[in-house]
């Protein structure tokens, strides 16, 4: 409704301007060109004030109207620093915007051409030039220093007690791999991707035997986590808006980023008042027709909840071994070397189909 009223108001203003223009043309015929010029200048000068007032009120109103659509609550340690930089930058640029726009429109009104107006030669003002050079220099220095301080903290070395998660983008989804109890990811190479080995994992590396392939991201709160990122096809962008994380996933060039989640999913549901809230991983790089489908749920819980989830996951190596035995059982009448229960068969079939 508000949008409709706004459009109608703009149309009315447009029609008024047209009528004023037509009136000016009639006046020019009656009074002559000189009188018309001064009359038009006066009209335009007052219109400048109208545009300034309406425009500034519209901007201020839109800020309050859309404030709930601004950045969501930051759920990471470094996200607070980024939000601080954003707010300080918006504060200073907002002041500059208001001052310059008010001066711009007011000068257009005050110094309009009239019969009595004479040009005034004003070549320089050292005090004024010093002022508008020194003030921006001080403000920019403050913003740059604050930015560099945050930059060095964000891209500092990864803490020793960090968790590791590998995320690989593809058209159109994400593969998420966790290390097992050894805390170490097995080696992999995109050149070794074949069949069910969708990540090109080197199975001769014993560290890979307990790696977990997941359909969602689970993170412990208040623990640093290192994301190792890659892509199997085109350029993707690893984007976690609530954590203020965005890093490109480039084919053939590994990238990484670490951060510390500070708010669990349950706590964020209370903050937002949305019992169905979930953090989400999205792709922020247009990567093809199915780009919209690259959303993945991110769950942040306590360390105990995270450990319980990890222990409940079956390693990918074990899944593929069971699948291979199931295939051998189907092709021959011989029983596999390891007995496979019906529940395991159902579970493995579901996991394989997910691959």
Characterize the structure shown.
- The longest helix is centred in the N-terminal third of the chain and has 34 residues, at 77-110.
- The protein has a 5-stranded mixed beta sheet with strand order 3-2-1-5-8, with no helix packed on it.
- The chain is of the alpha+beta class.
- The chain folds into 2 domains: 2-154, no CATH class; 163-313, Immunoglobulin-like (Sandwich).
- The chain is elongated, with a radius of gyration of 31 Å.
- Helix 3 (77-110) runs antiparallel to helix 4 and helix 7 (316-331) crosses helix 8 (342-354).
- The two termini are 47 Å apart.
- The model is unreliable at 343-349 (pLDDT under 50).
- Strand 6 (236-240) and strand 7 (245-249) form a beta hairpin.
- It has helices at residues 2-31, 33-65, 77-110, 126-154, 265-272, 303-312, 316-331, 342-354; strands at residues 163-170, 173-178, 212-214, 217-220, 225-231, 236-240, 245-249, 255-259, 279-283, 296-301.
- The protein is 49% helix and 15% strand.
- It is built from 8 helices and 10 strands.
